[in-house]
Amino acid sequence: MKSVVALVSFKLNEDILVEDWKKMSDGINQSLQNVEGFIYRDSAISDDGNVYCILKWESAEKQEAFLKTMKGDEFKNEMDEFARLVNMETMKSEVLKVI
After folding, report:
1. Residue 37, number of CB atoms within 10 A of its CB
2. CA of 63: how far to CAs of 7, 10, 32, in Å?
3. In the chain, which end has fewer C-beta atoms inside a 10 angstrom radius, N or C?
4. Residue 1: is its pLDDT beyond 80?
5. What is the CATH number of domain 4-94?
6. Which stretches of 13-71 are assigned E, i.e. beta strand?
7. Whole-number mean pLDDT of the chain?
């Protein structure tokens, strides 16, 4: 199995939500530490307000398994908060195999 990198980008619903996003991003980093197959995550923001997240996983299968769990009731509050902050129409995601 090859490791993968997920590249995610989006805009926040409002520029004033940057501090809220930073808090949420820190919480995401903490939550992912115990997820099987997770290796690394970081996020950054560009001058024009695009947020970029980079996540590295041991395999595409482990990344996909985690994404399925996020759709369950266990993560409902987190996903509601994510939707409050993020303009979902601008969200793009791509998973790349590490070479």
Report:
1. 19
2. 12, 19, 11
3. C
4. no
5. 3.30.70.100
6. 38-45, 50-57
7. 94
